[in-house]
Amino acid sequence: MKYIIILGDGMADWPVESLGNRTPLELAKKPNMDNLCKYGSLGLVRTIPSGMPAGSDVANLSVFGFDPSVYYTGRSPLEAISMGLKLNTDDTALRCNLVTLSDEENYEERSMVDYSAGEITTGEASQLMNAVAKGLNRDGIAFFPGVSYRHCLLWRDGPLDIGLTPPHDISGKKIFNYLPKGPGQEIALDLMKKSVAILKEHPINKKRLAKGLNPANSIWLWGQGKKPSMPLFVEKYGLCGSVVSAVDLVKGIGIASGMKAIDVEGATGNLHTNFKGKAEAALKELQEGRDLVYIHIEAPDECGHQGQVDEKIRAIELIDSEVLGTLLEGLKGLDDYRLMILPDHPTPVSIRTHCADPVPYLIYDSQKTEIANPDMIYSEACAKKAGTFIQEGHTLMDRFLDI
Predict the structure, then answer these.
(1) 82 lies in a domain?
(2) Which of 32, 55, 180, 254 gives the lowest tally of CB atoms within 10 Å of its CB?
């Protein structure tokens, strides 16, 4: 038996008035998903335990089969592992976004214009983060470049209880009420403010401004945590797994649990990613002996954060045609496999951030050839109508693997 998980990050949504009170999943043309619904099992799963943040870190841990209430130690440490950084027990890892703030003279009066600095390219971002590191690194403080706008700060003995806010939660808002609070706030804010002078004069930002692109004119710190410790996936489930993702967070969960992380050329973490290449990479992993592949696609989440409803619909359609379609074609010679399709959390375009609502899951078993749900499509409403609700998201993997 081979197992494939397709995780459409942030794919679920709320009914949108401009779509006739339908969700992007309901409106998207996704014949492959909808056809599998007729033969598979559909339901809702709560991937965010009560009281925990509605983030991709918590939600993906659940989908991987690890109880976040036991194994969650923060977002950034997982990303740091994917980046190949060595975390000591006294290190606190923090996510460092390159963001675009408005240009008021007083930093505290600025607003969050763009949490991704226009989805800045990795090549541009690396040069900017190298300049930040050169200007701000000191004993116990070290910055490291990552992918696109997503980077890392390792802070020796940094506080875990510092109050930090994800920048995608405050798009368009004044930053004053969301600046660092509590232990270590002075150091964190000082780093953020000092980054402005470094980034403002950098040739990369001058070129971006000349092209009409958003400049990466500040760093933004959040997502702090300590080195994680979790069981190996192969020991927990008896299966050798691989993870295909452009996002360090998801790759980090895979690596921390002993899975193989696959890099795909042209995988960007946005709508312009190499959708088909991810599916082809997954098929190759299965052909080379892996039992399970976890394919993560970030695009719907990015579109949700930007409030781009048409683009979110397009992202779902590309997942259906380029990812699922390619997989189904490649699996034709294989009689014995299971597919699971789901988001990690909703990212409603109306609020442009995550929420903790349950998400729809679809499990398809190639050996089940009788139509069970003739009137169902893959959507939030149909998943609710199906009547199956999984309260503890980390148990979904057991159901998928039929343990």
Answers:
(1) no
(2) 32
In this structure, what token pair is assigned to residue 287? 């052909």
User: Residue 246 corresponds to which tokens in the numbers above?
Assistant: 């452009």
Tokens of 89: 């027990």
Instruction: State which of 225, 256, 273 marks the end of a domain.
Output: 225
Domain assignment present for residue 6? The answer is yes
Task: Report the distance separating Cα 351 and Cα 343, nearest Å.
Answer: 17
> Strand, helix or coil at 166?
coil
Closest by CA to 7, choosing from 224, 222, 251, is 251
79, part of any domain = no
Which pair of tokens denotes residue 396?
A: 């979904």
Give per-residue pLDDT as tens, 212-246.
999 999 999 999 999 988 999 999 999 999 999 99
Report the C-alpha gap between 253 and 60 in whole angstroms: 8
Instruction: Single out the residue in 183, 210, 225 at which a domain terminates.
Output: 225
Q: Which two tokens stand for residue 21?
A: 């009170």
Strand partners, 99: 218
Q: What is the pTM of this model?
A: 0.88
Q: 271 and 197, same structural domain? A: no
Q: How many CB atoms lie within 10 A of CB 35?
A: 16
Q: For 67-71, what is the mean pLDDT?
A: 96
pLDDT band, residue 290 (cuts 50/70/90): very high
Between CA 371 and CA 37 the distance in angstroms is 9
DSSP string, 305-337: HTT-HHHHHHHHHHIIIIIIHHHHHHTTT-SSE
Is the pLDDT reported for residue 403 higher than 80? no
Would you say 118 and 306 are in contact if contact means Cβ atoms under 8 Å apart?
no
Cα separation values, 89 from 13, 198, 206, 238, 303, Å: 38, 30, 39, 29, 36
φ/ψ of residue 12, rounded to 5: -75, 160
- What confidence tier does 268 reach under pLDDT thresholds 50, 70, 90? confident
Q: Which residue has the tokens 């998207």?
A: 28
Distance CA 76, CA 327 (A): 31
Q: Which residue has the tokens 């993702």?
A: 245
Give the integer Cα–Cα distance in Å for 194 and 216: 13
Percent of the chain with pLDDT over 70: 100
